[in-house]
Amino acid sequence: MEFATRYQKWMSANYLKMMTFGPLPLRIVAGAAFILHGLVKFQDMPGTLGFFATLGLPQELVALVAILEVAGGIAILTGVLTRITSALFIAEMAGTTLAVKLPRGFIGGYEIDLLLLAMTASLLLTGPGKPSLEWLLRRELVPRGKWIMNGIRALEAASSVQNASAGGSGKVKKYTSDGKPYQS
After folding, report:
1. Residue 179 within any structural domain of the chain
2. pLDDT band at 13 (very low <50, low <70, confident <90, very high)
3. If DSSP codes are grouped into helix, strand and coil, which group holds residue 22?
4. 180 falls in which pLDDT band (50, 70, 90)?
5. Quick check: is 125 in a domain?
């Protein structure tokens, strides 16, 4: 019973630290899968062009998809631009599932695409986790809502200083959503 008690204490003390490593296996598997699928498209470009033509998709899309899969796979694997890349992969996997693999059914059809979609959706929600380039840089490369609001406040402050130096009151005028001046 003593081992179970020590384990519970250790888990309660380290649970949040361990959660930051959760995205790592998803990044490794999804990144490797996308890189390998992209490389295959580059290696057999005539076959891939023919396949896209049978689906009625433009041939320019082949290079774009292949580049996305290789470069995006590397980004996911290393943990840089994770959320943006994940959003692009979600769109790609939804497109391949609906346009190509849905009629084949789940087994032997869209199960891999659905797994990759779920993995990238998880990465979109959680971010890259601790062992990533974004963590080493000490920031995500995609600003979160709080950062955007801080940037807006900084711009408002800068405009009030500029307004004051130009002879204005220095106060920032606020407006309602319909464009009328805000009455406090």
Report:
1. no
2. confident
3. coil
4. low
5. yes
- pLDDT tens track for 136-162: 877 666 655 555 556 666 666 666 554
CA 157 to chain centre: 31
Same-domain pairing of 98 and 157: no
> Where would I find the H helices in the chain?
2-19, 23-43, 45-54, 60-78, 82-96, 111-126, 133-136, 145-165
Q: Do 31 and 65 share a domain, yes or no?
A: yes
- List phi, psi (to 5°) of 143: -65, 140
Which range marks the domain in which residue 52 is found?
Answer: 21-136
CA-to-CA distance for 43 and 36, rounded, in angstroms?
A: 10
Rounded Cα gap, residues 162 and 168, in angstroms: 9
Classify burial at 129, counting beta carbons within 10 Å of its beta carbon; exposed 0-12, middle 13-18, buried 19 or more. Answer: buried
Q: What is the pLDDT at residue 157?
A: 65
Q: How many domains does the chain have?
A: 2
Whether residue 51 is found in the same domain as residue 123 = yes
